[in-house]
Amino acid sequence: MLEGRAVVRETDMPEETQAHVMELAYKSLDLYESSDCQSIAHHIKQSFDEAYGPSWHCVVGKDFGSCITHLRGSFIFFHVDMMAFLIFKDGKDFSESKEEAIGVRRKNGFDA
Q1: SS3 for 88?
Q2: Has residue 109 been placed in a domain?
Q3: CA distance 76 to 27
Q4: Cβ distance 81 to 5 under 8 Å?
Q5: Is residue 111 part of a domain?
Q6: Following CA atoms 99, 104, 109, 112 in sequence, which dihedral angle do they give, to the nearest 10 degrees?
Q7: d(Cα 102, Cα 110) in Å, to the nearest integer?
Q8: Domain count, the chain
Q9: Domain holding 45: CATH number?
Q10: Which domain holds residue 45?
């Protein structure tokens, strides 16, 4: 595990969710080698999908850039030592039923 303290660079997540993702980051760093960024990211993504619903994305690495669109209240970018973590939720709420989606499209003039 990396020994450093998490340093948040940018976020719009509620504090409770921030604490959860950082806890998951530390647990992931205990479970996997720090060089196994894919497994660390997958573990965090799966945990967030289970806890908060689908469409979460997680990028973990030492040197990357990003330009993303995310749902309000679902973005965090932080570092633990040299490891960077980017977690965000994207897309629409998949709990909406197919019939509701069709109804919205028709109501807005997008009859499919």
Answers
A1: strand
A2: no
A3: 17
A4: no
A5: no
A6: -30
A7: 9
A8: 1
A9: 3.30.740.10
A10: 6-89
